[in-house]
Amino acid sequence: MSIENLARTNVRELTPYQSARRLGGSGDVWLNANEYPIAPAFQLTAQTFNRYPECQPAQVIERYAAYAGVKKEQVLVSRGADEGIELLIRTFCQPSKDAMLFCPPTYGMYAVSAETCGVERRMVAAKQDWQLDLPAIADNLDNVKLVYVCNPNNPTGNLIDPDDLRRLLEMTKGKAIVAVDEAYIEFCPQASLAGWLSDYPHLACLRTLSKAFALAGLRCGFVLGNETLIALLLKVIAPYPLPTPVADIATQALSSEGIVLMRQQVSEIATHRRWLQQALQNCAGVEQVFTSDSNYLLVRFTAARQVFNHLSAQGIIVRNQHQQPGLSGCLRITIGTRDECQRLVDALTTANETCQERM
According to the UniProt entry, which residues carry N6-(pyridoxal phosphate)lysine (predicted)? Predict the structure, then answer.
């Protein structure tokens, strides 16, 4: 018997999530992973690498609770928000019995984590405007223990109607956990549901330091929820999820100075996004630039595959979204530095000329 045959059937049949680094590419302008384009200047201060770290580093928890406006008992810190996604499934969904529900087009790890855990993936496609199809969700809640909503949504960049989110929370009371993925919430803080936690004990908010805090390589995320929900997740989480160097840098990033720096970065990205959106609308071959409340733009092209290949040849790596439902011809473009945005626009001009020559 081969080693592969010893693996669980669902794992053998699983299509893994294709992260930006797995997909790879060769270039010097990386606009495919929604990262901040410039590395922050933090230095390690901790030296106790011979000791196991705290499961939940007290200073990280306290600072994030203060930043998010919740109590420290309402915060769990994890290895990126991706671990939080899986923890919620492992905690609330019984394999081969319960289901989780999500609304594509959206972040791919919800489905992959569910499949890995042996939990049914139930898809309810978003409406044409990428808002929640609440009647369809209501019709598909049987045996659903967990609902994932990304807000703002990745890869479309739109905010979910808050009235719809409240209706979703009302219809799932006593039935399912609603996990709202707020990975990009720093770019639209007014849309956060953290202030709703006291009203909805079945609400969880997923957060990360990867995006606005410019610490994607740190792998530090958070789950916000009420005390009972957090206590349940703590039963399931690994003994030492956050390495000492990660906790050290996260504590610095969540200082008052670190938060000021993050907000400056958000303002800078928003300025570049507005410039790039306008510039793209003036590029031939661009069908539509979708409004975004995040650090990326979703753009539909008349010849997306050729544009993607041309940009790659120019050393500019973006993310192809053509396999997502309703996103044919769409590329997702991270907002880089002003110079990187200019390089992208210049390359798109030559891409259109190349496409026209071939027609």
Answer: 211
